[in-house]
Amino acid sequence: MWGFRSRVGRAAILAGLSFGVVAPAPAAAQALLPPGQTLVAPGPAGIGSPGMSLAAPGLPSAPPLAMPPTPSGPNAGQVALYLYARFGADKPQIPGNLIWRIFSDKPDANGAFKLLQEQKVAAPAFVLPAGGYIVHCSFGHASATKQITLRAETVREVVDIPAGGIRIEGRVGDVRIPQSQISFDIFKGSQFEPGDKRPLATGIMTGEVMLLPEGTYTIVSNYGDGNSVVRSDIRVRVGQLTDVTVTHRAAIITLKLLGSAGGEALANTSWSVLTPGGDVIKESIGAFPRVILAEGEYKAIARNEGKVFEHDFKVITGVDSEVAVIAR
Q1: Ramachandran region, residue 233 (left: φ > 0; alpha: ψ -120 to 50; beta: rest)
Q2: Which of 123, 119, 105, 132 is nearest to 63 (CA)?
Q3: Which fold has domain 250-326?
Q4: What was the pLDDT predicted at 15?
Q5: Fold topology of 4-46+163-247
Q6: Span 159-174, pLDDT tens digits
Q7: Cα–Cα distances in Å, from 312 out to 66, 103, 120, 186, 249?
Q8: What residue segments make up the domains of the chain, in order of their start?
Q9: Are 20 and 33 in contact (CB under 8 A)?
Q10: CB contact at 8 A, 44 and 65
Q11: Predicted pLDDT at 3
Q12: Range with the lowest mean pLDDT among 1-15, 241-255, 286-300?
């Protein structure tokens, strides 16, 4: 059941079924997030507006951030190494939420590359003995490596991280689904690609920003704990925050078993909601259980004091309603 649509901006059509909206964001670091926004596994954030990038406004796209002064008094044979990261050639610089690691470029006896130093700043300064090293920079789920050689003079290097961000929300018609009722899972690659896939991230909430390497991903949107599930493909582009709106065709249904028409709901009632084919969608116990169901036809089965009662009903998108089963 498809309901993935664009809000603003240009659309990327994948397999003719789903759409992605590219809405570049004005910030890439937690410190730049607007109030109330959250960040998942460090990534970009901010309210998107056309023509802006993931880097903070005013940051240069090529020169590095202001570098700290060269560390004083390095020992003989040591070299200062300054680093910064960007989203790619001619792309904005990343101003924060980076993890930098320096490894030896030669494996040890066990075949592992030894971690020598680590910093969590936008533009780190390392002092290292002359020689070869592997620089690793991570930004959320995206990362990049670069091999460097230090000799006698100070070295300045840039690492390109081809990454972008996505931020998701769900709607029924034009009504936004409350954060507590919906969550999202992300899988690498298109849903139409063969093979068993493991989720890259699960339980993502509305408004959270996921930073991902450039590429195609599958978003699985789960509205409630019934059968309202929507799968959509999205393309992540370098240096851009893609705002995704997933539209569900569903409604909230409240069930109740009445002793007579217009009477009180009977407590201690066991419920089953089935499809016309007999598949069980939801089971619960109570006088007024609620279930979120995709648009379609269903059968409600109520069990109370050893008696079984049935009622067929229909779910219409966006029409939340009560389904009353009469105990007779």
Answers
A1: beta
A2: 123
A3: Immunoglobulin-like (2.60.40)
A4: 25
A5: Immunoglobulin-like (2.60.40)
A6: 999 999 999 999 999 9
A7: 68, 65, 59, 35, 19
A8: 4-46+163-247, 78-160, 250-326
A9: no
A10: no
A11: 41
A12: 1-15
